[in-house]
Every structure is written in structure tokens, then in C-alpha cells.
Specification:
Elements: E1 5-14, E2 17-27, E3 32-36, H1 43-50, E4 58-63, E5 66-67, H2 72-78, E6 79-82, H3 94-104, H4 109-122, H5 138-150, E7 156-160, H6 168-183, E8 187-191, H7 195-201, E9 204-209, E10 212-217, H8 219-225, H9 230-237, H10 243-255
Parallel strand pairs: 3-8, 3-9, 6-7, 7-8
Antiparallel strand pairs: 1-2, 1-4, 4-5, 9-10
Helix pairs in contact: 3-4
This protein binds adenosine-5'-triphosphate.
GO molecular function: ATP binding; ATP hydrolysis activity
Domain ABC transporter: 5-235
Pfam families: ABC_tran
Length: 256
């Protein structure tokens, strides 16, 4: 089966700083891949390369069999992306924003309206469908962003911290949506810092540290290698053990 996502020996620098140091990975259709790592490890950079936002990298990147460097427009039609820090045009209403995004994907305006209203209702945002988003909470904005990334029914979905700001009910809903999207054959590649969620919904977990993959497998496989929680495994593999000591030092510094 042709991999949906394929990265070969990816190197990426910002100026003279090398951020990705030889990333290799291959993802099959219908997989939910949790891509995790400490702050600054290179998660968003990897995702941005995959969606064609950062063409200046070394190595080979393919999505749906297409070359990211030369076929990025064709790829963009078939992928969805929900960024970590998105610039929502918040003087628009959700309906106006979703109409705008839908039309970029050349969807029919009537179809967009119907779909947007239905999806907003499922996220309990019906009452706000025509309100300016300037006053929206972080979670409300995140819901609109999630809808905008999925509106054109993409085959591959990239999510950077998809649960950011969501309340407990919305987290459950989004987890379930991710699961059902994968069951219907979509591929999900997401990054998150919420280990419990990663543990529960990922078919495969990839841990990246300082621009290199340090673990790759199902949660059961990773646990088999080291029978700890994902949080402990993460701390060990990424060298962030000893947080208790750091917290003590932090409090000590505050008190002095
Ligand atoms: N546009 C940029 N210019 C210069 N350096 C950048 C740029 N974007 C990211 N970096 C640097 O590249 C490194 C990797 O950043 P990246 O955003 O990919 O990390 P991340 O794993 O997504 O982190 P986080 O968990 O904090 O979101 C960091 O050191 C960051 O400072």
C-alpha cells in the first residue's frame, strides 16, 4: 500500500540553526499518528514541511504520493490543516469565515452554508454562527478552526495541538471525531502535549527530540520496551527527567 505520508532524511535549518536532523517516516492510510516531543523539538516544523508551507528543506517529502516541493497545490486540495497559532480573521463571523475558507477550496456556497451550520451546531456554536469572533474564547475559536480544517473533507488531516483551549466535553467530542475519521479511512497526523490523549487515541506514537526521532511504535510496543507511562517514557527519552527538582528550585528562586 502506498504510504500517505513519507519523509526521507529530512533536514531543515532556520538560518544557521539545524532544527530537523534526518527525519524518516512513513504513514499508512487510516492511521492516527501522535507526533510528540518537548517544546522546540521540531514538531510544527515537520508539519509545516508536510503541508507545503516550508519548501526550503533537504530530503524528500511526499503526501498522498505527491512531492511536497513540486505538487504542493494538488496536495493542499486534499489535506486539512489546523495550525497551533492560527490567524483567525476574527472581525468575521464563523459563517463568513467558513464561507471564505470553503470558497478557497472551490466548494459550492450553498453546500458550505449547510455544512458549516451543521458542524457549528455539533460544536454547540449555533447561537454564535453569525456573531463577530472578536469576543470568542480560545476554545470557541479552536472549534471554528477545526471546522475550517475539515470542511472540504480532506483525506489527510494535520492537527497541531488540536485540543488547545477546548473544554472537557469538546475534548471528548474531538477525540471521537478523530477516531471516526480514521475509521472512515482518513489519515490523521497530529501533535499534542496532552499525554493521556495521545496514549488513548494514537495507533502509533512518534517521539521527536532535538530534531530526531527517538521512539516510534504503538503505545503497547513502546511500553513493551519500557513499561512506564507515556509521560515517564517521554521524560526519559527527551531528557526532561527531574522536574520535581526543577520545580523546587523555581519556588526557591521565587521566595528569594
Ligand atoms: N520561523 C522560524 N525562524 C527561526 N527559528 C524557528 C522558526 N520556527 C521555529 N523555529 C525554531 O525551530 C525549533 C523548532 O520549532 P518548532 O516550532 O518546530 O517546535 P515544536 O516541537 O513544534 O515546539 P512546541 O512544542 O513549543 O510547539 C525551535 O528552536 C524554534 O525556535
Amino acid at each position: 500500500m502506498t504510504p500517505v505520508i513519507q519523509l526521507q532524511n529530512i533536514h531543515k535549518s532556520y538560518g544557521s540553526t539545524l532544527v530537523l536532523k534526518g527525519i524518516d517516516l512513513s504513514v499508512s492510510p487510516g492511521q492516527i499518528v501522535g507526533y510528540i516531543g518537548p517544546n522546540g523539538a521540531g514538531k510544527s516544523t515537520t508539519i509545516k514541511i508536510l503541508i507545503g508551507m516550508l519548501p526550503d528543506f533537504a530530503g524528500e517529502a511526499r503526501v498522498l504520493g505527491m512531492d511536497v516541493k513540486t505538487q504542493s497545490l494538488d496536495i493542499k486540495r486534499r489535506i486539512g490543516y489546523v495550525p497551533e497559532n492560527a490567524a483567525l480573521y476574527d472581525t468575521l463571523t464563523p459563517m463568513e469565515y467558513l464561507q471564505f475558507i470553503g470558497q478557497l477550496y472551490e466548494l459550492d456556497p450553498t453546500h458550505i452554508d449547510r455544512k458549516a451550520l451543521d458542524l457549528l451546531r455539533l460544536f454547540q456554536l449555533s447561537d454564535y454562527a453569525n456573531a463577530r469572533m472578536t469576543t470568542f474564547s480560545k476554545g470557541m475559536r479552536q472549534k471554528v478552526l477545526l471546522i475550517s480544517g475539515l470542511l472540504h473533507n480532506p483525506d489527510v488531516i494535520f492537527l497541531d495541538e488540536p485540543l488547545s483551549g477546548l473544554d472537557a466535553n469538546a475534548v471528548v467530542l474531538v477525540k471521537e471525531i478523530i477516531r471516526q475519521l480514521a475509521v472512515s479511512g482518513k489519515t490523521i497526523f497530529y501533535s499534542s502535549h496532552i499525554m493521556e490523549v495521545v496514549e488513548k487515541i494514537s495507533d502509533r506514537i512518534i517521539i521527536i527530540n532535538q530534531g530526531q526521532i527517538v521512539a516510534d511504535g504503538t503505545f503497547a510496543e513502546l511500553q513493551h520496551q519500557r513499561p512506564e507511562s507515556l509521560e515517564q517514557l517521554f521524560a526519559q527519552l527527551t531528557g526532561s527527567d527531574g522536574q520535581t527538582g526543577i520545580a523546587e528550585e523555581f519556588i526557591h528562586t521565587l521566595n528569594n
